[in-house]
Amino acid sequence: AQSVTQLGSHVSVSEGALVLLRCNYSSSVPPYLFWYVQYPNQGLQLLLKYTTGATLVKGINGFEAEFKKSETSFHLTKPSAHMSDAAEYFCAVKGTGGFKTIFGAGTRLFVKA
Amino acid sequence: SQTIHQWPATLVQPVGSPLSLECTVEGTSNPNLYWYRQAAGRGLQLLFYSVGIGQISSEVPQNLSASRPQDRQFILSSKKLLLSDSGFYLCAWSPGTPTSGELFFGEGSRLTVL
Description:
The complex is a heterodimer of chains A (about 110) and B (about 110). Chain A is about 0% helix and about 60% strand. Chain A is mostly beta strands and about 110 residues long. In chain A, strands 2, 4, 5, 9, 10 and 11 form a six-stranded mixed β-sheet that branches. The mean pLDDT of chain A is about 95. Chain B is about 0% helix and about 55% strand. Chain B is globular and about 40 Å long. The model of chain B has no long low-confidence stretch (mean pLDDT about 90). Chains A and B meet through strand 4, strand 5 and strand 10 of A and strand 4, strand 5, strand 9 and strand 10 of B.
């Protein structure tokens, strides 16, 4: 079984500051890990994913995440926040060979001018 | 390219009325199809998924059902809506062949039950 915990339902940063959104997962099999972004009243869009290989994954809009197996973490970062980054972010896990993707509760990112 | 369409976008229904939300995918074949529900302030809850025509897996016992009458069509239904059925419903697909399984989402259907 898989599960995802996102630490902090709301995160607020100033424009230009570092963005750090935390995600921890549990999985009984090697996981595939994802970060999705959701803008108001829209569906989710993939930001980045980890499947195998390099543990530092780069995504769209300057985001990246690092898979740390020993810590069962997949935290999302961006060096410099932009106003357009304000949205809700979801971490998700899928077991290899399975069909189900399990999502965390989401973290809403606020960016202050 | 692949696209996913979901409708209606917004729906207001009285308690006890029926529900039908439709989702179609274009530009691919044999997709895996999913229905998720997003309640206010909460994450996404997987409701149903389907790996083929007529094959439906239910994740949560509830007032809803799903059907897949065609390869690229996925329907979410209810015979009698409850207040607790209110939420944002998202249809998604992923490639049917073994892949990393990233999901491609529709724009969502917001259901308000009064």
